[in-house]
Amino acid sequence: MRKNSRLCSLKDNRTHWIMPCVAALVMGIGYADASEPPTVRATIQLMPDRKPAPAFGLEDASAKIVRLSDYRGKVLLLDFWATECGGCVREIPWFMDLARAYKKEGLAVVGISVDVLYESLKDSKEGWSRVKPFVQARKVNYPILMGDDQVTKRYDIRALPLTYLIDKRGRIAATYMGVVDRDNLEANVNTLLKEHSK
User: Fold this and answer.
1) CA 108 to CA 119: how far, in whole Å?
2) pLDDT score for 22
3) Residue 6 has pLDDT above 70, yes or no
4) How far apart are CA 104 and CA 102, in angstroms?
5) From the CB of residue 130, how many other CB atoms can be counted at a distance below 10 Å?
6) Residue 126, pLDDT score
């Protein structure tokens, strides 16, 4: 589906499944306005309930491998997105603002493109041919990595947008399935930044 459609969905060519991306619809809430889907809020999980974020090693635009472990000791906003997902595109300026505002406090923002799966592309080269111009045109100020089949499975990506907040110890603290509520996201980032890393 394209960015102007109501839903951002992923299609896996091997199993031919399609899922809606807005969590509110999963919960049975309809759209009040089709052009502006509802945003979703998340609650920070208690520390004992947090599970380790799945490890990954993915290429950035310069073919450098970036690993989850590179962000240990920082709060990480991990955004799974695609260039033709309207909700994903809507969130990017918010993530850019957060990256700018909280970098010195210890926030890292990383986007993982799943364009290869989302658009049924041939390979990561074809994915980067879409992602690089998109990122450059919008002057995205945080790293973008190219997702692969393994990370898609490990993070159980069935729909977009999907955003994780990962604490300083590398554990998933909050999950947003759908377009994030900006104020809620920022409040949760602040809460995690104040936590001790040990």
Assistant:
1) 27
2) 38
3) no
4) 6
5) 18
6) 93
What's at 93, amino acid-wise?
P
Three-state secondary structure call for residue 103:
coil
19 token code pair: 């899922």
Give the C-alpha distances (Å, rounded to integers) separating 73 from 63, 173, 198.
Answer: 24, 14, 9
Q: Give pLDDT, residue 118.
A: 83
How many CB atoms lie under 10 A from the CB of residue 59? Answer: 15
Amino acid (1-letter code) at residue 6:
R
10-194 CATH fold: Glutaredoxin (3.40.30)
Question: What is the SS3 assignment for 23?
Answer: helix
Whether the Cβ atoms of residue 166 and residue 67 lie closer than 8 Å to each other: no
E strand or H helix at 175: strand 171-177
Q: What are the pLDDT digits (tens) for 64-119?
A: 999 999 999 999 999 999 999 999 999 999 999 999 999 999 999 999 999 998 88
- Per the CB < 8 A criterion, the answer to whether 193 and 46 are in contact is no
Torsion of CA 20, 81, 125, 172, to 10 degrees: -110
